[in-house]
UniProtKB/TrEMBL annotation:
Keyword Aminoacyl-tRNA synthetase: no
UniProt xrefs under Gene3D superfamilies: 1.10.150.130, Intergrase catalytic core
Domain named Core-binding (CB): residues: 1-90
Tyr recombinase domain sequence ranges: 111-308
Entry keyword set: DNA integration, DNA recombination, DNA-binding
Species lineage: Bacteria, Bacillati, Actinomycetota, Actinomycetes, Micromonosporales
Recorded GO MF terms: DNA binding
Record-linked InterPro entries: CB, DNA_brk_join_enz, Integrase-like_cat_sf, Integrase_catalytic, Integrase_recombinase_N, Integrase_SAM-like_N, Tyrosine_recombinase_XerCD
Protein name as annotated: Site-specific recombinase XerD
GO biological process, one term: DNA integration
Amino acid sequence: MERLIEEFLTARATRKPSPHTLQAYRRDLRTVAALAGAQAEPAVALDQVVITDLSPRLLRAAFARFATPRAAASVHRAWSSWNAFFTFLVAEGVVAGNPMPAVGRPKAPLPQPKPLRGEDTPEQLLASVARQDGRQRDPWPERDVAVLALALCAGLRLAELLALRVASVTGRDGERRVQVAGKGGRPRVVPVEPELDRLVVAYLQSRARRFGARSVRPDSPLLVDRRGAALRRGGLQYLVDSCYRRAGIGDRVPAGARLHALRHTFATRLAEDGASAAEIMRLLGHASLASSQTYIEVTAGQQRAAVRSNRTHRVLSGLLAVGA
């Protein structure tokens, strides 16, 4: 199993998934395989599980154990991982068929958007981070604002931000755009408005002053840490969290969203301003229209709730009661 899992992950790596996605594949495959080994008769450890022994019955039992403490979305993701794994094994001639259609899977609910709460929260965040903070050991507001603005105004994911190069922002003045290496190897181009362009330019100029002109070569990572090295996943998450704390808006960030709350804010505001699901899909790099539609549905629900909060409705309710 261990060898086959690694061969599968090597094959998937050609599609350029994020390291986080590859880790999720490995974790789902190893966890369910270990549960299948424990359900076998006699029980065996993971390193003794034989792929041809994984019958539909054994896999159903393993997935039943896997599903007990987990959400439907996690079970759905694991099922998809195993389905892709067996599809690979069939293509390689390792097994004769894919048993996963005989293993039930829950319908995964579409994740609900988690934008920043509060009408002016994004503007408050940017304004606060743009100010020099004497409490910081090495303040770099130009870099911090550029990171937040790229997520808020271009809707980039964490992995997409980390993959950007200086040359990713291209085009003539007034026609600037950012070329994004999207999820699942799907590239996309997002327009860059002049205000965002000026923030990125100001950041690169501040970087050249800190580390020299060679630090902003076209093939250099766009986002770097305070030592000039490419930002990594943990560093970027810490940077965004620290910006939330400095702005005092931690209570307006949905649980578990962190940087993704900025991307969701971008999409939600697109929907509020009348963008179609197809437009949101293209700008965010969604694989399906259904994912983009959730932003429009949530926005419609928020609009109805806002209308419902109008005090006049209570007057109307009283009139209806009198009429009855």
